[in-house]
Amino acid sequence: xxxxxxxxxxxxxxxxxxxxxxxxxxxxxxxxxxxxxxxxxxxxxxxxxxxxxxxxxxxxxxxxxxxxxxxxxxxxxxxxxxxxxxxxxxxxxxxxxxxxxxxxxxxxxxxxxxxxxxxxxxxxxxxxxxxxxxxxxxxxxxxxxxxxxxxxxxxxxxxxxxxxxxxxxxxxxxxxxxxxxxxxxxxxxxxxxxxxxxxxxxxxxxxxxxxxxxxxxxxxxxxxxxxxxxxxxxxxxxxxxxxxxxxxxxxxxxxxxxxxxxxxxxxxxxxx
Amino acid sequence: xxxxxxxxxxxxxxxxxxxxxxxxxxxxxxxxxxxxxxxxxxxxxxxxxxxxxxxxxxxxxxxxxxxxxxxxxxxxxxxxxxxxxxxxxxxxxxxxxxxxxxxxxxxxxxxxxxxxxxxxxxxxxxxxxxxxxxxxxxxxxxxxxxxxxxxxxxxxxxxxxxxxxxxxxxxxxxxxxxxxxxxxxxxxxxxxxxxxxxxxxxxxxxxxxxxxxxxxxxxxxxxxxxxxxxxxxxxxxxxxxxxxxxxxxxxxxxx
Lengths: 272, 255
Fold this sequence. Notes:
Chain A is an alpha+beta fold. Chain A contains 5 helices and 10 strands; from the N terminus they run H-E-E-E-E-H-E-E-H-E-E-H-E-E-H. In chain A, the strands form 2 sheets. In chain A, strands 1, 2, 3, 4, 5 and 6 form a 6-stranded mixed β-sheet that branches. Chain A has a 4-stranded antiparallel β-sheet with strand order 8-7-9-10, with helices on both faces.
């Protein structure tokens, strides 16, 4: 809808504000939003979490299934991430076939989770070549006030950490009536989290609100995790029309570890 | 929904008590008393507000037999015999003579298409521009994404026509724009403009409030502008309370 488009006035004004390092909610350009996590949102999912990042709200659920493995990874489990941009979350989202953003979101989360090595896929194998676990992560934004990808990445890892493997029957099929077993085999030390940097003019910002996000000209998402004391970039995706210079990427790389530590500290005991 | 209504009722009740005890000799006190007398009640669509032939249905209210029934979610108010609803939510319903802010969405050969947050777009004819404009240079005067203040000239079946001749109307330059729910606009302006002039005085900003909930702001410094916007958003979040002007005076002292 056209009324959602940003006016020239607002874009120029945001450009000026970001250059001064000011934002309407009192944060400076790289200040993060407040994060909250709630667990066990759904009683039919094996794991679920609701994450609030400022006013942005995302629900993620984890379902577990058994099935035949893919022919190229006979001894490994599978991961499937799906997402839907519900019309209730934002006036920008419409029902119907998924658009660019609706395809991008789960793919980014998928890549970031998979490449970080947070999930031990080998331990998801029940019987090699015949029966393996498939982890299905569903992401549902409830309210989009910007930084949806960043909020979704926290929701996804929180839901995974919350999930338990259901019991199996004699044939190795899932039996939900049986007692739930142990948690999903995760590498406890690896916590993958996405950071999306938005660019307007010469300024970069983190965790935008919706109107800030709409005013921005380009974005770049990095999936970050820490392994053996080293920060790793697990995934990267750039969107929007403007370009990022090498200098800007270098600056982002400087900020990333700092911000990663900050959000891990903010999450603190929330992520268990 | 239900919880919200209960909460709002409680807030109203608290406010009424305050109104009686605290604000006695100020203007805002008079405003509160008037509101207490009006007995505002939160209603939802389909709710019977009052029964009897003594009352007349006003805005957002319809009559079904004996009963006056709410068609909108808002505060029911009785003024004399007329019962009307002050909506809490809802889209902008354009009226002739409304001053609105709009965003240019297209440049045509004889005028501009303007988005004013209504179901259809509005049209601004080139003749409304106060100076001569070459047909090929229309985009230089008003380009896509520019903001104008205009008056709704007529509403026909085909669409809305805008006029831009008049004081305070025209292309808007500098400052920034944001949106609030259009049902909050009357409270933001206040009784005879009391609220908006308070905010203007305290922050030194120029503010234009469109009836469609689009607000334009320009001040001497970014900090003042941020403050003015925060003040307006505080007001927009407290529409159902009485004595807001008084409260905002206190808010400005604190911040």
